[in-house]
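Example S7 (structure tokens).
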């Protein structure tokens, strides 16, 4: 498909396709939510499917810098107007859009979301919320000032097992928590050489719009679009920003954490281009009602993660230096990680360590397990108690039916029915924590000290990575 054949001018919003006058003039009932979608490829397509599966949603606009993605989405929603440039879409269709869904690469999350929010549009934005700490704080501020409905795309936040684990921790099932270990062997890092030269931009792709506010860079086949941008510092947030957001979410929420005081990352020296393939990030958080005087949090990612520690020992497990023998392909890890054996750590997950034992939370759709003095402890009564008290219902092990609930929660909140559980007030703090870890990776082995009030590091050299210089494009 040729881009020129597919789009005449993004500003007219038709991409060369004539829309029926009846559609352009149609009115929208007040019980319908008219949505515009920025980014409709890969995860953006999944977001589109989930949002539009709500009976009260009308998809009225689709935007993507890749004409192939747009064509596929438009076949699903032939009545929607289509654009290459989100700015043109929002400017032209502002009065016809009720809510905006942002599913672009990370570096475009904030520019697109903030434009929509400043037009008073509720926003559902994929995780991590932003690419820079300054953007997270700005999105939190604008959402609060305008009273907007917002939701970050951490769909497992609404799943049974995560809600259950939150309630169990807050009930004191393992006492005060002093340490959390969390891990994913997924590999969204790049230790290879920097690309040289440039390749011809595919005809269906607008490379300038893909780069957006990031600095100008030559196109290289297979290096950026469509799949590898998460590995690169100018566009993604590494494994920490991809799986870390999901796996951090429950411990962060359960322990009612704010942002950390110190951050130390162990990894290879920074090359300023790709995130390291293996990282161990140690955070220290201030006390909350559910922690000790402080909380130590250790994150492990990359092939072979986690590095073994006595806190991660399970009943019947032999102590090993690391998990490399499991032969995990870090690029194949997904939300569908299999159930581990009784004496095996799940491929991805978290371990809470408290004064009365440990709680293992696999990722995902598996019940948490309590361990005391090297033995599993039956917590079925505790699970039944908190489930009944909080009306959790029975666990449903079907991602196809459970996944859309987080999206539908956003739609319902926009229509005045209930509230979202991952609004930007929460999502911005969680994302800030994640991003502080990626910044610390630029200074391996050094402890960075974070001042939450001033939003600055004590180490001045790190502060330049808190925000970026937006390119005019």
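Recovered sequence:
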């Amino acid at each position: 498909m040729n881009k020129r054949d597919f789009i005449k001018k993004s500003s007219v919003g038709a991409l060369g396709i004539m829309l029926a006058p009846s559609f352009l003039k149609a009115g929208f009932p007040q019980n319908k939510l008219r949505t515009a979608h920025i980014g409709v490829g890969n995860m953006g397509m999944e977001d589109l499917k989930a949002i539009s599966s709500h009976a009260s949603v009308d998809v009225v606009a689709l935007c993507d810098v890749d004409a192939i993605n747009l064509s596929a989405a438009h076949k699903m929603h032939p009545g929607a107007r289509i654009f290459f440039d989100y700015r043109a879409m929002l400017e032209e269709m502002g009065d016809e859009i009720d809510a905006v869904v942002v599913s672009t690469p990370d570096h475009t999350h904030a520019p697109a979301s903030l434009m929509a929010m400043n037009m008073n549009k509720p926003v559902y934005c994929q995780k991590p919320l932003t690419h820079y700490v300054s953007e997270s704080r700005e999105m939190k501020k604008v959402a609060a000032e305008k009273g907007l409905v917002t939701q970050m795309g951490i769909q497992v936040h609404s799943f049974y097992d995560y809600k259950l684990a939150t309630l169990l921790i807050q009930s004191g099932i393992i006492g005060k928590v002093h340490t959390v270990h969390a891990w994913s062997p997924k590999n969204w890092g790049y230790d290879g050489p920097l690309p040289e030269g440039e390749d011809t931009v595919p005809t269906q792709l607008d490379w300038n719009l893909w780069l957006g506010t990031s600095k100008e860079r030559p196109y290289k086949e297979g290096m950026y679009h469509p799949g590898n941008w998460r590995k690169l510092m100018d566009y993604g947030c590494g494994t920490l920003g991809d799986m870390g957001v999901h796996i951090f979410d429950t411990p962060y929420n359960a322990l009612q954490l704010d942002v950390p005081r110190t951050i130390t990352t162990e990894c290879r020296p920074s090359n300023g281009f790709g995130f390291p393939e293996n990282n161990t990030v140690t955070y220290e958080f201030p006390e909350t009602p559910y922690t000790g005087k402080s909380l130590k949090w250790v994150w492990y990612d990359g092939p072979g993660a986690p590095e073994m520690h006595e806190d991660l020992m399970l009943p019947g497990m032999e102590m090993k230096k690391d998990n490399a023998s499991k032969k995990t392909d870090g690029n194949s890890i997904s939300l569908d990680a299999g159930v581990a054996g009784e004496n095996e750590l799940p491929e991805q997950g978290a371990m809470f360590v408290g004064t009365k034992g440990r709680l293992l939370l696999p990722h995902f759709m598996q019940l948490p397990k309590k361990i005391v003095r090297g033995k599993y402890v039956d917590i079925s009564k505790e699970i039944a108690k908190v489930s009944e008290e909080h009306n959790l219902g029975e666990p449903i092990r079907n991602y196809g039916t459970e996944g859309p609930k987080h999206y539908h929660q956003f739609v319902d909140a926009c229509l005045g029915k209930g509230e979202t559980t991952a609004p930007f007030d929460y999502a911005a703090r969680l994302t800030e924590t994640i991003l502080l870890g990626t910044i610390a990776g630029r200074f391996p082995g050094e402890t960075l000290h974070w001042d939450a009030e001033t939003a600055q590091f004590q180490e001045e050299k790190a502060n330049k990575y808190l925000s970026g210089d937006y390119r005019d494009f």
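Notes on this example. The longest helix spans residues 238-254.
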